[in-house]
Amino acid sequence: MSILEIIIERIRREGPISFRDFMEMALYYPGQGYYTSAGERTGKTGDFYTSPYLSSLFGEMIAGQMEEMWQLLDREPFTIVEQGAGSGLLCRDILRRLQANKEMADNLNYIIIEKNDNIRDLPPITGCIFSNELVDNFSVHQVVMQEELMEVFVDHKDGQFEEVLRPARPELREYLQELRVTLPPGFRTEINLQATEWIGSVSSILRKGFVMTIDYGYPSSDLYSPGKKTGTLVCYHRHQVNFCPYEHVGEQDITTHVNFSALDHWGRNHGLEYCGYTNQTYFLQGLGLTRHLRKLEEAGKKNVSDDSEKLLFVRTLLMEMGNKFKVLIQRKGIRQAFLSGLQFPERLL
Fold this sequence. Notes:
15 strands; 13 helices; alpha/beta
């Protein structure tokens, strides 16, 4: 059976399922979901682009931040845990830069784990746990505020999916209460409980060091503003954007914006301290991307084919993607210290 048939059959047996369960099946059902079936996901033949796909310089800049973290940890043996590595391009670019530092390379351990791996199975580490475009693909609950908070469920009738509302379960109400968020009548949004569980798991294996989360999203003050009253869910299919998760089931990406205030809040609850928050443009500028490009040009070592392509890369990474993507860094077991990528901070409310 196709994933579409599998979901319909489950609804037939059990009745309406939560949107969270629908999204989880559409993306991750073994062998049939969008991310668990064969096929290209990024690039021209895929459905979207990511920063590592655009240029190796993105990974080189991140590596520079990790090198600075290693120095702040007194140059101890350093473990990098990358969760959701995808094609491995970012890992390749980070290691290429770090291998130039022989002392760090000799004390470096790089671990890749995927979404279906339990990060709690890793031993305690000293170093950096990081992800790029991971949390936005966690399956989310959708809620709508009426006389009380209602959760979106998915039914299937007369050959099509339809949504039904049921009173929200306690943990969804408690999520908003923890963040001191009051939704106005008619407001629809997503609640990512998996993200709060994930940040707790990350903290549990970090003995000392940093957590770096790169993704597109907002703090609560923006996420629950009037301009987001219909939520942030977006679907990508062959580089076309749509807002209907019930089309191209199993063949399109389904994403939602990350609540960085929630990652900070639940991170603190699990022993992580706030280090800083900024957008990707400021982060890369703080790490010297523009200066690095200039040096490459002067040395004649170009990572792109010509000047026009270089300008397009900078414009895309720094402007189009850079202002949408955010960087949150948290720390554990280390005093507050200066990080170059955070020298142009944004406020996290």
